[in-house]
Amino acid sequence: MAKKITNFSTSCCDRRRSLSSRQTVLMIMLCAARVCALQVVTRLFSPSRANRYYCCSSTRRVTTTLHGFSRQGERRSKGDQSQRPQRRTFQSQQPRPTQQVRQNSSKTSSNNKLEKPEIIFSNNHVLVVNKLAGWKSQPGDGGGQNNNNQNSNHVDPKCLLTYLQLQELGGGSQKNFLSPTHRLDQPCTGVLIFAKNGKAASRIQVAWAKRKVKKIYWVVVEGGDDGLDFLISRSKLVNGNDKNPTYQLSGMLKSTGGGARGNKRGGRGSVVCKPVPPNQTSSSNNDKSDGFRVCHIEWKHLKTLPNSKHSTNGPKYLLSVSTDTGAKHQVRALLALAGGAPIAGDLRYGDNYSNRGGKVDGPLPDGSVALHARSVFLPTVSLGGMEFLLEKPFIGDLPSRWREYFGVREQDVKELK
User: If phi over 0 gives left and psi between -120 and 50 gives alpha, with beta otherwise, what is residue 385?
Assistant: First the structure.
């Protein structure tokens, strides 16, 4: 019995020895396979990347082998670069979309000749900027990055919304949430308000829908042979008690969805206008069914501007124009097509259809249109820490180039209202 037990234990020990030897062989084969795999990896990846991939799960012997291959890779990298095969570029090595957007923006910023916009006001709710000519208010046909497409790889270098987002001037955890509450045409300038959160965006949009927002534009118009007499004859007197009387100019506008700013003189714009005589009410007009929209602007004369080297078509006048609606090209179309007083530099509507009134003979040197959103007043919008909205509007200074073009400076017009 004792001999049987001894023989059984001896056989078990032999099996244990044989099993451990098999495991040893398997471990050696596994290490050899890892070394072979490492040779392939070092050809595809950098040596440091291969170390990160395999050091964590390898034994000390394999780790030593990896360092040996790394040193071989370094010596090989110091050799002739022309004989090295080109490495593959994996998707994991490509920059993230947001990083690529920032890289593209840095490249375009060097070629971008646009002046930086002025920040008028900024807090947790809104960002107010003084837009300069050439900036697009928001992404258009040229592309850009907005809140709904953060992973877009194309950046429009002229999009103001994209520029402000990349500068991290918005709201949210990433400081890139900006919602435009209104817009300005690309060649125009002035106050532009962006909301930094959903609450501010909704409240400002409600105020616009209820026509509780008052927006004042300052424009430079071309006067005709009779000055502003033709514009006055097309307008209705609203307030004659003031030193500068206020007039109302009305018209029926319809968007055609076409027209380009680069058209030659007389080129058709993207808005068709039918003037409404001052002695005729808009309700008596029967063109509403044709898609026309009744629009009004109130204007008053602020200052007659001195002649300059750009005043080749007679005198120019600085007007204050107010409106509570946001129809497309409302101010530009009504002044030019209904009042015969086109805005300086406005080639789209500048060639007046009438034989009377002023005309635009050419563009301004920078391609801008002399329409400046002077102020935006939000008296009904209630936001935390912004009680001043009840009394004070946001005001944007005049473009500095107006001094060269029209001989007018911000210091000269601060007291004008």
Answer: left
Q: Which of 304, 291, 210 is nearest to 253 (CA)?
A: 291
Number of C-beta neighbours around residue 62 at 10 A: 17
- 3 state SS of 191: strand
State the Cα–Cα distance between residues 116 and 135, nearest whole angstrom: 9
Encoded amino acid at 185, one letter: D
Token pair for residue 89?
A: 């570029």
Q: Is the dihedral of CA 167, 169, 170, 173 positive or negative?
A: positive
Specify which of 27-36, 55-64, 138-147, 185-194 reaches the highest per-range mean pLDDT: 185-194
Question: Of 41, 76, 377, 350, nearest to 220 (Cα)?
Answer: 350
Residues near 216 by beta carbon (within 8 Å), at least 6 away in sequence: 320, 321, 322, 373, 374, 375, 376, 377, 393
Q: Exposed, middle or buried: residue 177 (CB in 10 Å: 0-12, 13-18, 19+)?
A: middle
Give the whole-angstrom CA distance, residue 70 versus residue 89: 20
pLDDT tens-place string over residues 41-62: 556 554 444 344 444 444 444 4
Number of helical (H) and strand (E) elements in the chain, helices listed first: 10, 12
pLDDT tens digits for range 86-101: 444 433 333 343 444 4
